[in-house]
Amino acid sequence: MRTATGLFDDYSDARSAVNKLEVAGIPSDDISIVSNKGGHIDSDSDAGEGAATGAGIGAAVGGAGGLLTGLGLVAIPGVGPVVAAGWLAATAAGAVAGAVAGGAAGGLIGALTDSGVSEDDAHLYAEGVRRGGTLVTAKVEDARASEAEAILQGSNWVDTVERRRAYNEQGWTRFDATLDPYAPEQIEQERNRYRPPVI
């Protein structure tokens, strides 16, 4: 098994990638989505208004089907509340619940590295989610890895080499779960930094 992973600046691109993975026959149980929606759920999201508040994991209503119907609210140290579903979300939430204060970096990095993602990439993905991005992962047989990656890339994924360079230019080196989560205004500013210019 391999893990195909894509970071997206736009939630709708990530949602599209999840739908395309499901249509390609990748089981919903093998797909995950973790999205930092900036402390709110956008009106154009299928996730709806039902995200529960509380101790960490809540219930959310209605995706279009498959994985997206299971969206819930998870709190990740250093990232804050995220809308999430799938094996990665469950693994990260379990690691957070069982972690000793000051321990593993919020569970997300450990969940990613345990699934075969390099530690450097896991830090980049966690930081991308912290800054308002959406992470989609799919566990696939080796023979389907290229297909899954092509689906993610074709859904407008982030070029991780370029994004790492941009983060490094800002002084970033690694995800730090002890930092405060980005505020909605900071997330919007970060999203605007990477949006293509309107012509």
TrEMBL record:
**What's the name of the protein?**
General stress protein 17M-like domain-containing protein
Q: Which InterPro entries match?
A: GSP17M-like_dom, Low_temp-induced_all0457
Domain named General stress protein 17M-like: residues: 6-70
Q: Which domain of life is it from?
A: Bacteria
> What does the organism's lineage look like at the top?
Bacteria, Pseudomonadati, Pseudomonadota, Alphaproteobacteria, Hyphomicrobiales
Which Pfam families does the entry link to? YflT
